[in-house]
Specification:
- The complex is a heterodimer.
- By secondary structure, chain A is an alpha+beta fold.
- Chain A has two helices and ten strands.
- Chain A has helices at residues 2-39, 149-157, and strands spanning 41-46, 60-62, 69-71, 87-94, 101-107, 118-127, 131-135, 140-142, 161-166, 172-178.
- In chain A, the strands form three sheets. A five-stranded antiparallel sheet of chain A has the order 3-7-6-4-5, with no helix packed on it. Chain A has a three-stranded antiparallel sheet with strand order 1-9-10.
- In chain A, β6 (118-127) and β7 form a beta hairpin.
- Chain A is globular and about 65 Å long.
- The N and C termini of chain A lie far apart (68 Å).
- Chain B is an all-alpha fold.
- Helices cover 75% and strands 0% of the residues of chain B.
- Chain B has helices at 3-15, 21-30, 40-59, 66-89, 93-117, 126-142, 145-164, 171-187, 191-211, 220-229, 240-260, 268-273, 277-297, 320-342, 345-367, 373-411.
- Chain B is globular.
- Classes of the chains: A alpha+beta, B mainly alpha.
- The interface between A and B is medium-sized, with 33 and 36 residues.
Chain lengths: 179, 412
């Protein structure tokens, strides 16, 4: 019985270690994303009308950014073409009118960039003859159930402006949605 | 064997004079009455309370400030783990492990909810791999089948999500699962866990092949690898699911070709299926040799017949379906024969089912095209009934004989 208890006690110790590690992991993700909101660089993004087929009604609003579609002329790799599932790096540059950020180039690996430019990591959703469709993980905006109707209508017609904050270590978070 | 049984049987033993009642008491003292598991009512009560809290939090989630949300997740997780460990220490193992399982689920929910807080779409499965790994470590720490199953589900679902939504296959997740849970299984063999682990392995092999758009037959390399590996284990009693699932997968694959392909079809169907012959056949032959060597070492060379299901007839230009049909029959007959020879009901039952399936496939293939459909079904039904009656009678006879034999042996 004694050894059994001792076994259980050392088991408890490792359980505590494991639980603390899980808590640290969750805290880590939170800090990773908060850090973007605290020190990240703010960029403004323009939305475009959402493809009605993409609509998935739920407790979030589907956002379609202008930077979701990249022209093939932006693709910076002569040898390989981007394919579905590829990770790509999208270089954004502030456009004079309205201060929106727009695509300057799409790269298969991390390029160097000037201080005014911003690099976002994205994933190729699909690529057809005209465009490369890229998702950044910023395409859903969670709202309280049944309150997102007006926001959803506006997202569908594509006249929303989204402020996003991005930190150099790769964390990118929606800060707010402006009309 | 439990204490109650010992108590009842022990009385008979003392009556027959095999042991004295004093000896019985001493034997019984070796098996102290286990602390009663906590009653079902408090368990149900705590589940209801938990569900209530959960639905309340879920309904008001958006109104709760972010910091409070994080606190709720963290506290719920700590609460589940602590109460689980407390119950375990007091001897309520089942309830304790159940609560620890809830703690693990809360960890996963926390990952998802934090993602929602920042309006992030799950973008890759790294955080889910962390979740599964936490489950794996818990399984090792607490040695619980229940946690094993949760962990297996986490890994299987994350791979499913990864391949269907993100069109990727995570080799890291696959490796962690196979090594971590596989090694756990080797230390604590268990039939149920073997079935589940083998099923997950096979499903993930299908995902691996489809995600990469490989020729489908490549799927059989990992599957037969699993089969072969199990020819080398010392454990025999509960290892058979690891070989049964690969065999079932191969059987279904062959059955599929028999049913949905014939010579008049466009042969691109089989071409899409076929891997490059040289490498595929080489890999298969290597596995076959390894498997036979393993079987030979353990003195079970007869079960090498299993491999007829692996014969790659899809390379044939003509008659692939007929060749596969023959393998189906041979395999099910072989299984029936082994079942009777080894006096093992599982094999007899499985062999019966597979034999009936093969017969139906053959019948459907031959008769569907030119027979009136109502006659087709009537004759098919009669055929099925007659065969199953015959096989069942055979089985019953066999099992009664076996029973009688054993009785005789006991009387001698």
């Amino acid at each position: 019985m004694k050894t059994d208890n001792r076994l259980k006690r050392s088991g408890s110790f490792w359980l505590i270690v494991l639980v603390v590690m899980q808590l640290l992991f969750l805290t880590g993700i939170v800090l990773f994303h908060y850090s973007a909101l605290w020190v990240g660089k703010e960029i403004r993004l323009q939305t475009t009308p959402v493809d009605p087929r993409d609509q998935l009604y739920g407790d979030y609003v589907q956002l379609n950014y202008k930077i979701n579609n990249a022209n093939w002329s932006m693709w910076k790799d002569a040898e390989h073409k981007a394919e579905r599932g590829d990770t790509v790096y999208v270089l954004l540059q502030e456009n004079g009118s309205g201060g929106f950020y727009e695509i300057k180039g799409v790269y298969p690996s991390k390029p160097s960039h000037a201080s005014g430019e911003v690099l976002l990591k994205g994933r190729v959703q699909y690529a057809n003859d005209e465009t490369i469709r890229i998702h950044y993980g910023l395409e859903q905006y969670y709202v309280a159930e049944n309150t997102g109707k007006s926001l959803e209508d506006r997202a569908r017609s594509g006249d929303l402006v989204v402020d996003v904050k991005t930190a150099p270590w790769g964390s990118t978070v929606i800060e707010r949605i402006e009309p | 064997m439990n204490r109650k049984w010992l108590q009842q049987e022990g009385q008979t033993w003392t009556q027959k004079g095999i042991i004295t009642s004093d000896q019985l008491q001493r034997i019984l003292a070796l098996y102290p009455e286990q602390k009663r598991a906590i009653g079902i009512i408090p368990l149900l009560g705590s589940i209801l309370v938990g569900l209530g809290i959960l639905s309340f939090v879920a309904a008001n989630w958006q109104q709760i400030p972010q910091l409070i949300r994080l606190l709720i997740i963290g506290l719920a997780m700590i609460g589940f783990y602590t109460s689980g460990e407390t119950f375990r220490r007091r001897g309520h193992d089942k309830l304790g492990v159940a609560l620890i399982g809830l703690g693990l689920l809360t960890f996963g929910a926390g990952i998802v909810l934090i993602g929602q807080m920042f309006h992030l779409q799950a973008y890759d499965v790294t955080s889910f791999i962390v979740w599964g790994t936490a489950g794996l470590l818990l399984t090792w720490l607490i040695k619980s089948r229940y946690l094993f199953i949760i962990t297996l589900l986490i890994f299987t679902c994350l791979q499913w999500y990864n391949s269907t939504e993100l069109n990727r296959f995570s080799f890291i997740a696959f490796a962690i699962m196979v090594v971590g849970l596989g090694y756990y299984w080797l230390k604590r063999p268990n039939t149920l866990l073997a079935w589940l682990l083998a099923a997950s392995f096979t499903i993930q092999s299908i995902l691996l092949v489809t995600v990469h758009d490989w020729a489908f037959s490549w799927f059989f390399i990992p599957v037969w690898l699993l089969y072969t590996a199990m020819d080398w284990t010392r454990e025999r009693k509960s290892v058979y699911p690891f070989q049964a699932i690969p065999l079932i997968a191969a059987f279904v694959h062959n059955l599929f070709i028999v049913l949905f392909w014939n010579d008049s079809n466009d042969s691109s169907f089989l071409k899409d299926l076929s891997a490059q012959p040289a490498w595929f056949v080489l890999a298969l032959v290597v596995l076959f040799a390894l498997s036979l060597a393993g079987k030979y070492r353990r003195g079970r060379l007869a079960s090498g017949v299993d491999w007829i299901l692996a014969l790659p007839f899809f390379y044939l230009a003509h008659g692939a379906d007929a060749a596969y049909l023959i393998t189906l029959f041979l395999f099910s007959l072989y299984l029936l024969w082994r079942g009777y020879a080894e006096e093992w009901a599982v094999k007899i039952n499985l062999g019966t089912i597979l034999f009936l399936t093969s017969t139906m496939a053959a019948y459907g293939k031959l008769a569907w095209d030119f027979m009136d459909k109502s006659i087709f079904f009537i004759i098919g039904g009669i055929l099925l009934l007659a065969l199953s009656w015959f096989l069942n009678r055979r089985k019953k006879q066999f099992l009664t004989e076996l029973h009688d034999e054993e009785e005789h042996r006991h009387e001698d």
